[in-house]
Amino acid sequence: MKKGVIYSILAYFSWGFLPLYWRLFQSMPAWEILAHRIVWSLVFVAILVSAAKRWKQLKSVVPNLKSKVAVLLCSIFISCNWFLFIWAVNNGHVIETSLGYYMNPLISVVFAVIFLKERLSAGQWVAILLAGFGVLIMAIQYGTIPWVAISLAVSFALYGLAKKMAGLDVLLGLTWETIVVFPIAFGYLLYIQSAGSATVSSLPSYSIVLLLLSGAATALPLFWFAQAAKLLPLSMVGFIQYIAPTTSLLLAIFVFHEPFTEPQLIAFSFIWLALIIYSLVTFKKSRAAKVVNQAA
Q1: Measured distance CA(199)–CA(194) in Å, rounded
Q2: In whole angstroms, how far apart are CA 161 and each of 105, 117, 172, 209?
C-alpha cells in the first residue's frame, strides 16, 4: 500500500508540474515540440523494452484486427491530447488544462455509459449534471465553450476507452502507440529541418538536453501510474489523481499569473463538488463490491 501511494503521488505530481516543463520550449511551435516528444518517447521505451528483453512479445500483443485498430486509436487520441496540452500551456491556457483534467473522470463515466453500456447510480448522474453546470458558467463567462478543457477531457477519455479495448500492458502499449505515429513525427522533423524552419537549433544547450529527455518525462509517469494501479484500490488511485490538475491550477495562478476570476471560481466549485460526489459514490461502490466478493 505504501509503495502504491508513493508511485501514485510521483505520477500525478509529475503530470501536474508538466506545464513548467513545456514552458521551457515556449519559443517552439507546438507541432515541433509534439514531434520531438513522440520521437524521444519511442527512443526511451525502446531502451526499456530492450532492457526487459520483451521485443519478442511486441508482435504477439496485437494478434487481431480489433487490437490493431485499438492501438491506432490510442495513438491518434493521445497524440491529439499531447498537442492540445502543449499548445494550451504555451498560449496561456493552463487554467483550462486544469479544468479539463478535473472533468476527465466524469467524461470517462459518460463514455462508459455510451460505449460500454454501464449503468450509473443517482449520485453519478448528479455529479455529471453539476459538472455540466460548471462548464455552462465558463461558457457564459467566456462567451464561448471552453473548448481547450473539453477537448483535453474528451481526447484523454477516448484514449482511456481505446486503451481498455486494446488491453495491452503499459510498456508494450506505449511502444506500439509511439511506433504508429513515429514515421509522421520523424518525417515532419526532417521536413522542417530541410525547409529551414526548425527552431530546435536556436535553443540553448540545456534546453536541447531537456527536449531529448521528453521521452522519459512522458513515459516515467505512465509506469509509476501502472505500478500504483497494481498496488492500490482503484478508488484510492481515483482520489489521488486530483493532485495533477490541482498542481496545474496553482501553477497557473501563482507562477504563470493567469487571471482567475470569480465566475471561474464558481465554475470550478461546481466541478469540485461534482468530483467529491463522484469520488464518494465510487468509493462506496468499491467497498460494496469488495464485501460481496469476500462473501462469495
Answers
A1: 12
A2: 12, 13, 17, 34
Q: pTM surpassing 0.90?
A: no
Is the distance from CB of 101 to CB of 245 less than 8 angstroms?
yes
Three-state DSSP class for 252? helix
Q: What's the pLDDT tens digit per position in 198-246?
A: 999 889 999 999 999 999 999 898 888 878 877 876 556 667 888 899 9
Q: Which amino acid is at 24?
A: L
- What 3-state DSSP class applies to 195? coil
Q: How far is the C-alpha of 8 from the C-alpha of 68, rounded, in Å?
A: 29
Work out the number of other CB atoms within 10 angstroms of the CB of residue 296.
5
Q: Is 240:12 a contact under the CB 8 Å cutoff?
A: yes
Q: Which helix (H) or strand (E) holds 29?
A: none
Q: Kindly report the length of the chain.
A: 296
